[in-house]
Design brief:
Bound molecules: fe (ii) ion
Strand content: under 5%
Number of helices: 11
Order of helices and strands: EEHHHHHHHHHHH
Shape: globular
Oligomer: single chain
Radius of gyration: 20 Å
CATH topology of the largest domain: Hypothetical protein af1432
Length: 251
């Protein structure tokens, strides 16, 4: 007998079919069949399906625990950077993207070092996420002193703080657009210790060397990846945001 996954709510039983809708609050649709919630008549979800890697399910988990727009944008930025590195290194892009999306999903609720990312890793484990993802997320926390062994562990650590620095550099520009940011402007702010002092420059440099990439090249590569996702990560800039809002109003 097939078992319903915990994302669906049974609405009733018809002739030979179970009527149910996906309980995803973010998308409101069945992640498998894309049927709007409340109208779905689809075969029951199985537990095996529940354990499959799915980006939207990962995003649902992220948004269940995270409300802060800046933290959500950070997760999306790290996702974009890891996606780009996965493509460059010939690794599994979905696995890497999901790792980026979820690396801080527990942070808003449990920001203390004794909890983040340990609480999150327990949740991920019970949700059936692979150990490869869980270990990479654990090892991005320097204070846990875990060895970063796999390219995924190293890449996550290398891009995490850098995404924070690039975001900070973008947000002090009058345009607030990442498209106006250059490697040179990032390096300039890098040297200015009072700027974004929470961003540990040493961790970024260490991350690049662990990953075996030249620091400037690493900065340029991540910047380009984030520029490619400017709108999704909230760094498209004020002019474009206004243009988009106007288009929506007039459209
Ligand atoms: Fe973190
Ligand atoms: Fe992070």
């Amino acid at each position: 007998m097939r078992t319903l996954c915990n994302r669906v709510k049974v609405l009733g039983h018809g002739k030979g079919v179970n009527r149910h809708s996906c309980i995803s609050t973010r998308t409101g649709v069945c992640y498998r069949l894309n049927i709007p919630a409340g109208q779905a008549v689809c075969p029951p979800h199985t537990l095996e399906e529940k354990n499959l890697l799915d980006r939207d399910r990962a995003e649902d988990l992220l948004t269940e625990y995270t409300r802060s727009p800046s933290l959500l944008n950070h997760a999306l930025a790290v996702e974009a950077a890891l996606g780009a590195y996965a493509r460059r290194l010939g690794e599994d892009e979905l696995t890497w993207r999901i790792t980026g999306l979820l690396h801080d999903f527990d942070y808003e609720r449990w920001p203390e070092p004794e909890n983040h990312p340990l609480k999150g890793s327990e949740i991920l484990r019970s949700a059936g996420y692979p150990e490869q993802i869980i270990y990479a997320i654990l090892s991005h926390a320097q204070y846990l002193e875990l060895e970063r062994k796999s390219p995924l562990d190293q890449a996550l650590f290398a891009v995490d703080e850098l995404c924070g620095l690039i975001t900070a550099v973008t947000l002090v520009r009058p345009s607030r657009s990442i498209l106006d940011v250059t490697v040179r402007s990032i390096k300039k702010k890098w040297k200015q210790r009072s700027f974004a002092e929470g961003v540990c420059r040493e961790d970024i440099a260490l991350g690049a060397s662990e990953l075996g990439v030249d620091l400037d090249e690493h900065i340029g590569f991540v910047l380009e990846a984030l520029q490619g996702s400017a709108a999704q990560i909230g760094l498209i800039g004020v002019a474009e945001e206004h243009a988009e809002a106007n288009a929506q109003l007039t459209g």
